[in-house]
Structures are given as structure tokens and as C-alpha cells.
Amino acid sequence: MMTWLTILFLLFPGLGYYYDLYQIALTEHLFVRFEQQIAQQVRSLQDNPVEVDLSSPRIFPMPPTRKDAWSEIDLPVKSGLAVDLQSNQQLFSKNADQAMAIASITKLMTALVFLEHNPGWDVIYKVLPEDRREGGRIRLYTADQLTTKDLFYASLVGSENTAITGLVNLTGLSEQVFVEEMNQKAKSLRMFNTSFVDPTGLSPENQSTARDVFKLVRVAIQNDEIKKAVLTGTYRFQTKEGQEKIFESTDDLLGQMPGEIKILGGKTGYLEEGGYCFAAMFEQDGHQVITVVLGADDRWQRFTQTERLLNWVFQGYDWPEIK
Question: Which terminus of the chain has a lower count of CB atoms within 10 Å, N or C?
């Protein structure tokens, strides 16, 4: 099939000569424009030089290597994961992409979104009747007056559900809008198998996977405010009416880690639909590892299996020296 340009060349053979001249001129014009653009960029760099520091070149961390003779570990939980934080290497995985209820681990996401709207740590909040949430031990009551900081620590240390709803109200957002922001935050963290419907974690429809929880913990524990809260074993304060409140951490591994393993922060969770859960960040000899245990049979098993997994990881791999 002939194109209109081919027909013109057949009817007027001399047009081919002028067409070639046109192509040459067009090419030279484009080349001149390209040279002009390069010259402009060079002048811009000369006027605004960029300093490049080559004294400390970036060194990518070497991942740990599995010892040949080290046997596998079987965790009696529904889902689990262990990841070396520096190299991002997966060290252990069991049903890590299976979605299930994560209960109060949800509160880590709630805390992240809240901190984007924090009205100030010293702002006084009066607990409202609609803040009341069942589930867990209730220590805050209608008309209690406390600071934003007290609400924040009650939420993360004692996993107090009423405190969580108070934090949401403090942002000025409706709960629906707040939860929408939680889901948006999850997407921004590439937690594509995660969905939230409430900020407390009381709903079994708050679903995630061990792999997505790892991503959440990685970001949350690196936040100084969240890290300080989840590393607090006991938090005491007085309401503005003078009533003392005491919140004990739900994390039984605080101050109880064996050997040289140090806990850097974590969060527990429990729902009948999802079992007992625990996700945390740990460190030994400068190597940081995040472990996730979902669906343990009882509150103690989530901690004992986390300890088993940590010991297996640190003893079953050869870890590169950190300089």
C-alpha cells in the first residue's frame, strides 16, 4: 500500500532531492537545539555548583549468611517473619503473606497518623462518653481530663482503646477520615495487603500480613516519639482532677531479653479472630532485626516464640562485622 508521500515522489521525482535537504536541515536544527540545551545546563551548574562529598562513599551492608549445618525452625504460630533491617534480607518466613487480624498492632499506624496532626503535647483533653471502647482493661472514664502526652502513652504503653479514640478526636478529624488517612499511609509504605476500618484494632476487619507489619514496625519504631512510648515499662500520671493513673506495658519482653539482645520497641495485639500477636525490633552487636509473630495460641507463646526465633536467627547465621 503506497502512502501519499510515495505517490508524490512518483509523480514529481525532483521532490526527493528537496525532501533530503529538508531532513538534513531538520537534523542539524535539532542538533543545534540539543547543543544549546547542554550549554544552558553547563552554565547553570557553573553558576550554582553542586558539592559532592566523596570522602565517605556509600557502602551497602553485606547480608548475613545461613550456616550450612543449622537446622530449620518450626514456629507453632499462624504466621511469622524475621528480617535483617540493614540488608533487608528475609531470615525466616512462615505464611508471611497471609492476611489476618492484627488487633492492637493497629495502634502503631494510628500513632503515625496522629503525629501528623498532633495539636501539642500539653493540650488538655476531656474524655467524652463516645470515647468509651470495650476490650482490654479500661482505666480512662468519662470526664477524665489529661494531656495529649498522657493519651499517647496510655495508647501505646497500656494499649488503652479509650485513649486511642481520644487521640483521634484531638486531631479534629472524624474517625472515618482518620481511618482513611491510615489506609493512605499504609499504601505510601507499600503495605498493599493491609486494610484498616477502625483506629483501635478492635475490629477483626483490620487485616494485614506479617510482611506488611514488618514495614509498619520499621517506620514506627524509628519515630522517636513512638519509640520512647513503646519502650516505657510503666507510665504514671495524674488527671487534672488529681486522680493517679498507672499503665503497665503489654510488652513482657521489656527488660527481660536474654544475653546481649536488646529490644528497640514493639507492639502487642490480641483478638479472638487473630490470636495473640507481637511485632518488634531488636538489636545484637549492632545488627538490627525485626520479628513478627501473628496468631499465637496464648499471650506467653507470642513472647517465647519471638525469643526462639531471635536466638535461631542470631545463632544460625554468620553476621558480617559492622565497622
Answer: N
